Fold these 2 entries.
Entry 1:
Amino acid sequence: MTTPHPNHDRGLEFDLATLLSRRRTLGVFLGAGTAAALAACTPGTESGSGGGGSASGAVSGTATESSTAVASPSSTVTRALAECGVEIPDETLGPYPGDGSNGPNVLEASGVVRRDIRSSFGNSTTKADGVPLTVTLTLLDNANGCSPLAGAAVYVWHCDRNGKYSLYDSGLKNENYLRGVQEADSNGQLTFSTIYPGAYSGRWPHIHFEVFESMSNTSAAGRVLAVSQIALTEKACNEVYATEGYESSARNFPKTSLTSDNVFGDDGGIYQLATISGSVAGGYTAALNVTV
């Protein structure tokens, strides 16, 4: 990339120094009775299957309250607890991670900690065009009874609607859009605002992510808890790729199936297939439970 702007040359450490304390105390302890009740309350929104829950974040409507009000977990957390137990499969970073393992390292750039990853930051403000997509991940700690993994950090990246990756592809080496870092809240949840990725030859449409122990460890070797990918659903892909701007994706998508994909093909992406709802006009939401 070109020489960074003076306000964007101190990396992730500078970002962290300007934020309020990112550590949050887990405020909900689930006893056996509560866990059983939550397991019975799985939300009904569904366009995909697998480990995802509703990305709406709405409070479960099935809870009954006594005279003492108790906050209910979101429907995504409810479903996550019900389905927890299988750790997310480890997958390849791929050739375009941008985490320093293969060339550029966006994790050292100030500005990478953000929810909306549609635009580049630093020297460029170029915005990636495409159908809006909101991605919610719910992180669960398998070693501790599937408790929410509060305070963990996730780095997400994916291709644009033409199947190209910022920092790597021709004409995009000075762009860093569709990449960002977020910290999980007390429910183990974090959300990114992005666009629906395109389909390129040889791969099922997907989103890459790395899970780190904490925000302060996102650039530390050996602190990675999981490396995996989110698989997108056939129905949503067909809808999105029929729209203007996704012409190359419409051509590429039929050439690779989930079962023939070199990442998801071993199990059909059963633990990585997001739950997706929405429309081209209103945008889509995708959710996935990530047990580590």
Entry 2:
Amino acid sequence: MADTWLVVGLGNPGPDYARTRHNIGQMVLAELERRAGASPKRHGRAEALVAESRIIGGPKVVTAFPTTYMNRSGGPVAKLMDWFGVDADHVVVLHDELDLPLGSVRLKQGGGHGGHNGMRDIIAARGPEVLRVRLGIGRPPGRQDPADFVLKPFAKVEQDEVDLMVQLGADAVERIIAEGFLAAQQGIHAPS
């Protein structure tokens, strides 16, 4: 189905990780599902929570949150791509990005994993061609280990910026689907 889109929010499963930096992709996914009135359910063939909806007047959109740990995201994404017949150019992956300042939203197509283990596993399973919404979480302060930093919740003073990034990330996905990747990228990356 060429008009079906798969939108994947990366994160780790369970309440201990729900509001951590590493789960910002899942937070944006939840906002998309809220906007669409979609209720995720466990998928029978892939380790993921999945919801199906439509953007008003537009194509079918499948939202998915792999219930595996981040570094094992490739298997569920590959299974969902096969199940729903979605090509890589209709897959949007939402993920945290250490190399972007907190609150930044940037779109990317293809390329390497940049040290992100969820993207590394998806690329190993299906190649690098997927579309990405990169959600800036900033670098850790001082000498803090990045692996520890991404598993920490956002600070209270960051919450307004995080809430705005969730909205902008959801807007970016809607624009990709409605306008096409390049138009959405130009709109999102344009200076305000």
